[in-house]
């Protein structure tokens, strides 16, 4: 077992991830659902800022890409005229505080001082962030601290300004930068000010930096902060002035007030949804880190979803895939249903574009894009066949909608959102072809196993269509809506092929290597194969077919769920570990997509791993009547498993 030592962690507990090595460093996004600030190993600097839901064309091919924002928390710091740099510090360490949503870097600078730099994206104030600097002088010194902003290459026409606003006796210094996205689609504005404990320092502009200087006494702790925010014209008609209101608000609040509101917001998340593992600190840290990242990448009522890499990078262009509905959503539905609802709101708002896509290809109803951005149009790069042919996502979306109703039993919500189910069902009955024997097929698709292109009757595509159609029929019955007879006929007669007792990945499948679980998904999360012997046969066969070198992490998470439900404790635990360990990157164990990639943070994989805990070991089952709590299964490596805040009644499950 590889533990925390692999990741350069000298100290360890269930809420903190410590690093003391900068080698092969992969940072963590401090995010609040709107902005993601990625940590760096360079002192007093962030790596990048990702803006949720803001897209513009990429320079390579014009395909939409999530936008990197202006990095507004960066600091140049000099002590006795000597600048703090990456190569002249010592005793570097960094800690991610998952309980409070902060990252703190600590280091010594020569014999002058020790310095702490804490960054956070404020969970309570969604467009704002703060960097708190604490200096402990080892002798009397003079410091100069200057805030500077880094504008990424993809932003253009950047302009900066510094001005001191005045309202009666209040002086409000504000430093800001405004730029345009690559094609000019959006304006991005960031603004900051300095907050001080005690006496306020006079800020001065030097070139493109704003800051102050001050003499410090030996041993006397000195603390200040850079506080501000970032806004875009996607959300605001006047992002420049709204961004300036962020530091002005911060000035009136003060460091501790802002920090405490942020901590309280995180405490509320953990109080309403947490997983506690006793007896296995490594598993506890990794499970909580997965939750921390999922929570960081979404916030209720934003009507935004989660990209595969969340707010940690521009990976996969920040587009929304099935990753959201199939892999991340089930965990959010169980523990943070308001976040899960936001993911559905995102799809509901783009239903008309899904209907347009169906029309484009000659189908009826709604056909959701494989990759989606803020427009809801197909955003997959043109060269990728998945954009046109990986169509199971339309069923994945519909199933997620039904599962939200099942979870809440909220008929008013179902009535308001029913048209998503109806329109996607109409797509499937227009998509199938009728065979001579009266059965139905879906021809020429890319399934969950993306290694197999242009296949007929892919198992997962057909099964998810069956489940989506049957769910639509149930919803129509509840709401007393008309039922299209074709929904019934197709859901009963859509083919899933089998050969020699094994469910076929697709028609004519001959045992080729597959990218990830496909057939096994028919047992979980779908409810299409429920016979225990068939589940066991398909597991035994397909576990050996999955790409062991480059397959993504999700397959192992699903296999863990299935083996847990079969009562095989050892295999369930082995696949649970396999779902994250080969994909962990130093120093904090951030998720990469596969064992051989370096593209963290892969929120999709985190979602699959968490499903192994909740829906596997935890014994939780999604049914039409809501969550069902089965006995569960405890790995011998753990003393107990507690899932806190699950279900609409915020239940606590404990398995010992």
Automatic annotation (TrEMBL):
Boundaries of every Glycoside hydrolase family 65 central catalytic domain copy: 288-495
Lineage: superkingdom: Bacteria
Pfam families, per database record: Glyco_hydro_65m, Glyco_hydro_65N
InterPro entries found in the cross-reference section: 6-hairpin_glycosidase_sf, 6hp_glycosidase-like_sf, GH65_N, Glyco_hydro_65_M, Glyco_hydro_65_N
Glycoside hydrolase family 65 N-terminal domain boundaries: 29-223
Family annotation (Gene3D superfamilies): 1.50.10.10, Glycoside hydrolase, family 65, N-terminal domain (2.70.98.40)
Key words, A-Z: Hydrolase
Gene Ontology molecular-function annotations: hydrolase activity, hydrolyzing O-glycosyl compounds
Annotated PANTHER family: GLYCOSYL HYDROLASE-RELATED (PTHR11051), PROTEIN-GLUCOSYLGALACTOSYLHYDROXYLYSINE GLUCOSIDASE (PTHR11051:SF8)
Protein name: Glycoside hydrolase family 65 protein
Organism: Flavobacterium aquariorum
